[in-house]
Amino acid sequence: MRRARLQDYNLLVACPRDREKAAISEIRYFIGDLLADSELKISRTPVSGLLACRTSLNPFEVIHQLKEFAIENPYQFRFAIRFTPLEECVNSEITSIVEATQRLLPKISEEESFRVTVKRRHTELENMDVVTAVAAVIPRKVNLSDPDKTVLVEIVGEWTGLSVLDEKIDILSIMTMRDDMY
């Protein structure tokens, strides 16, 4: 399996630890076969239980289509259990993360509120340092409890993926879906 370059990633998929091989098979089935993405690339990350993917399709559309499939077939998703879109992929340096945030800023309208969510793994960057730097370049109202948009910063060692999204609709979490069903 090839190692993807930073700019190659546009989807992050979580799975149970040490179940990456089974999750890769599911991702190939869901995105490669069901959604007909013949150019799908999947890479392991340095983090157990976390895969980085490159789909030739719009990652937000992939998640929305998988969500529709999961509503009808939630137990088809046994290993690939959380899908998160990535819009920017940069080196894990505060300046690069801030520059990527500025490129994504048009996705938050002036009337919308936001919050910054940082998930970090294998890094010495501190959550609050990243939150403070990112929030400083977003001239919008902050709402920590119910924001219109979330600036998601996923730090995975030397690379960081960023997205501006609505967490309720733009992330597919199979465990949350199953909890909501019962």
Which percent range fits the helix content? 25-40%
At the first level of CATH, the class of the largest domain is Alpha Beta
Please report the number of helical segments. 6
Count of DSSP E strands? 10
The helix/strand class is alpha+beta
Order of adjacent strands in the largest pleated sheet: 2-3-1-4-10
Order of helices and strands: EHEEHEEHEHEEEHEH
Q: What is the fold-level CATH name, i.e. the topology of the largest domain?
A: Alpha-Beta Plaits
Shape: globular
Q: Could you characterize what this model shows?
A:
The chain is α+β, with helices and mostly antiparallel strands. It folds into two domains: 97 residues, Alpha-Beta Plaits, CATH 3.30.70; 78 residues, VC0802-like, CATH 3.30.2130. It is built from six helices and ten strands; from the N terminus they run βαββαββαβαβββαβα. The longest helix has 15 residues. The chain is globular, with a radius of gyration of 16 Å. 36% of the residues are buried.
Short description:
The chain is an alpha+beta fold and 182 residues long. 34% of the residues lie in helices and 27% in strands.
What keywords describe this structure?
alpha+beta; Alpha-Beta Plaits; single chain; 5-stranded antiparallel β-sheet; 2 domains; globular
Secondary-structure topology with pairs:
Elements: E1 11-14, H1 20-34, E2 41-44, E3 50-54, H2 59-72, E4 82-85, E5 88-91, H3 94-104, E6 113-121, H4 127-136, E7 141-142, E8 149-156, E9 159-165, H5 167-170, E10 172-173, H6 174-181
Parallel strand pairs: 6-7, 6-8
Antiparallel strand pairs: 1-3, 1-4, 2-3, 4-10, 5-9, 8-9
Helix pairs in contact: 3-4
